[in-house]
Fold these 2 entries.
Entry 1:
Amino acid sequence: TTPSAAPDGPDYHPEGKGWVLAWSDEFIGTALDLTKWEVEESCWGGGNNERQCYTNREQNVEVVNGLLRLKAYPEAFTGIQYPQGWNGDRGDQITQQYTSGKVRTRQLADWKYGRFSARIKLPKGQGTWPAFWMLPASTKYGGWASSGEIDIMEAVNLGALCSPCDGDAGENRTSGALHFGGDWPNNTYITETWTLQGGAEAADDYHVFAAEWGEGRINWFVNGVKLMTIDSDQWFSSNADK
């Protein structure tokens, strides 16, 4: 169902905290602002054996009523293997059994340090894996994950059966993570998982997911509550001194 208006709820840009807004998108109008976003087109599976093609179709990437909607469908689709900007040939035509949407600010907007936040309603269902994350603008220290990756939010299988979860709501947790170390497979990561606030229906609500990144420290927040801190003495790149 298409919402009639943008959601109420926690503000992604809290006042009185000293932050100065540098970039935002309220998704006004009926089309994605391509001066701010690029729609990824790829079918390779993202290194995770994902089963969808990301497309540039309106049915997968829609702007409506002050919302960006990234929508997945069970449908066979054939598209290019690797995304725009891939290091080398973009590969073969690949057929997957699902389609979905993915947008990024690659080569359009990037920052070292700041607060990065979004108000998001997450999809539910076995096999879903929404994410809000950051990759480096350049591979200064080499390939993934030696140059780092900051995962502000990930959620897997919300609403599905989940024995370690709180209550009877099924899977009701999200997570944050930092990936670092050497080039794959010699990489590592730090992650924490937390239960969404709001009880059994929390997965049906909008939440603000944020990371605050400053020199020597990254903090993760959900709805203004700090849930994880990682300091610079906990991460490294194996290639930093080479």
Note: The chain has a mean pLDDT of 93.
Entry 2:
Amino acid sequence: KIRHYKPSKRKARKLLEKAGWKLKDDGFRYKDGKRLEFTIMTTAGNKTRELIQAFIQNELKSVGIKLNIKNEPARVFFSQTVLKGEYPHMALFAWISAPESVPRSSLHSNSIPNESNAFSGQNTGKWRNKQVDKIIDELEFEFDSEERKKMVAKLLKIYTDEVPVIPLYYRSDVSVTPKGLKNYELTGHQYPNTNFVEQWTWEKK
């Protein structure tokens, strides 16, 4: 069963206390003289991502965790920091996918960017799981849709147990269409909306 994590500041504080992180007068937690803090990085100048950073920073502060924000120009952030895994703790960015896409480039251990693959992979979090690798390898050769669903469910169970990436939200897609066009829908993923053009109809006014 896929694991779900319900947000709870009360539970977060309880877990932190149990782990030995004690709240001090400055509002942050310390253990063995070390403050509990992380750094989050993203593309400088992207207002949406910077707003999300500020929100996360405020939420973590409310449970005693300090979050430092350090941003870079997109050309540096993506070509150097993310690709070579040089961010200290967290990197905030987006990616696109589709329901039928096999997540080899983002989750397979062979896709961890390194010198041997010319830093071409997208598994920048460097997640390694042999069972996930096996599922992905087999998924590419399985054409039965029901079997694929079962395999993906197993993969998602491991993914939500280990949480190599924390998805935050789906980005909105906007489309302007004429009133007479019916059965047109945004796909919500990387496949173009014209994939379903045979379902479109035109209603004359």
Note: The CA atoms of residues 120 and 188 lie 26 Å apart.
